[in-house]
Write a structure and sequence with these properties.
By secondary structure, the protein is mainly α. The protein has two domains: about 15-190, no CATH class; about 200-330, no CATH class. The chain is about 35% helix and about 5% strand. The chain is built from 14 helices and seven strands. Strands 1-2-3 form a three-stranded antiparallel beta sheet, with no helix packed on it. A hairpin with a 2-residue loop joins strand 4 (about 220) and strand 5 (about 220-225). Helix 1 (about 40-55) packs across helix 6 and helix 8 crosses helix 13. The protein is globular and about 55 Å long.
Length: about 325
């Protein structure tokens, strides 16, 4: 799956997803769960572990809100920057202006209530009441289960606090032009499918990971769902340009001939430390392979099972276009 900070590079794609949740202790900035009972303590730890897993390996929170080293393959996170924000997204990645990923460590969120965090994550409205640019895939996160959003918030609050003031955004267009009207989500109605149904659970993981943001081609600023997951979006950082691949079930140009083992091996091989040590140059990617390769094997298998059900779309993709064709690929 070709991905730039999973929310990152798609820029305007994420704005078409929605529905949501409401979390935690709305009247306090910290959860007030007492942990003097072993059963409660175990429950809190399970919630924290789930949130850590989602934020690091599914939803990509740390992928966007940390700083990545793109002198290495797939841009692994620079140790010590987890959650500090500051990563710049600009016209090179399809953003109409300059947006810096916010600091999401407790140093920046200490005055936020759980309710305010939930609203930002699933409605795109920050503490000040400002609308977030849909580079943050809040319309996708709005479709996650209430429990999963709560777990992510619990984990974010556990990050090491890092003092880092992030510059304000500078957009070339009014925010209203980037965000279509959407209803307030009712997160309590969202259901997380059972892992016992791998296709439905795989679909849930793919949606939570905003995979479509990168892999569904854009036409006139909107996703072309007739070619859902057929790839073709171009992303560049000025050093390399990469085109998101076709991951439909098409047997000629997609992954229709891939076995489950081939799918799993793709993740494992792309996240190898030895490969990261290389200087990739123009053969690089925004896809955070290290994050996704560390997903549970059963979750990757569920994603594979779901992608097998995606309508085949024949569309040949050249992942790293030669310089002479990059201008055409970006248009």
């Amino acid at each position: 799956m070709q991905h730039k900070n999973r929310s990152v590079l798609s820029s305007l794609v994420a704005m078409l997803f929605l529905i949501a949740w409401s979390c935690g202790n709305p009247d306090s900035s910290q959860p007030e769960t007492q942990t003097d009972s072993p059963g409660i303590a175990d429950s809190v730890q399970a919630s924290l572990d789930r949130g850590r897993y989602l934020a690091n390996h599914v939803t990509g929170c740390l992928d966007c809100h940390s700083q990545r080293d793109f002198t290495k393959y797939a841009g692994p996170i620079i140790p010590g920057t987890e959650g500090k924000g500051g990563e710049l997204f600009d016209p090179k990645v399809g953003v109409p202006g300059e947006i810096y990923a916010p600091n999401i460590t407790p140093a920046a969120l200490k005055d936020w209530t759980d309710e305010e965090l939930t609203r930002a994550i699933t409605e795109g409205i920050n503490k000040k009441g400002d609308t977030l640019f849909p580079l943050m895939p809040y319309m996708t996160f709005a479709q996650m289960s209430q429990a999963d959003i709560q777990d992510i918030i619990r984990y974010i609050r556990s990050l090491a606090p890092i003092e880092n003031t992030v510059p304000p955004r500078k957009l070339f267009i009014p925010i209203a032009a980037a965000v279509p009207p959407h209803p307030k989500p009712d997160l309590a109605k969202n259901i997380k499918p059972s892992p016992d149904d791998p296709v439905k659970y795989g679909e849930y993981l793919v949606r939570s990971g905003s995979c479509s943001d990168c892999h569904t081609p854009m036409v006139n600023g909107a996703p072309d769902f007739a070619r859902y997951m057929a790839g073709g979006n171009s992303f560049s950082d000025g050093v390399f340009t990469v085109i998101s691949p076709n991951i439909t079930s098409d047997t000629l140009t997609g992954i229709g001939k891939w076995t489950e083992e081939m799918f799993l091996q793709k993740f494992a091989a792309s996240a190898e430390k030895a490969r990261q040590a290389d200087k990739p140059g123009a053969i690089n990617t925004f896809m955070p392979w290290e994050f996704f390769a560390s997903m549970k094997q059963e979750d990757l298998k569920a994603i594979y099972a779901y992608l097998r059900t995606v309508k085949p779309v024949q569309q040949t993709i050249v992942k790293w276009p030669p310089p002479s064709s990059q201008k055409k690929a970006k248009s």
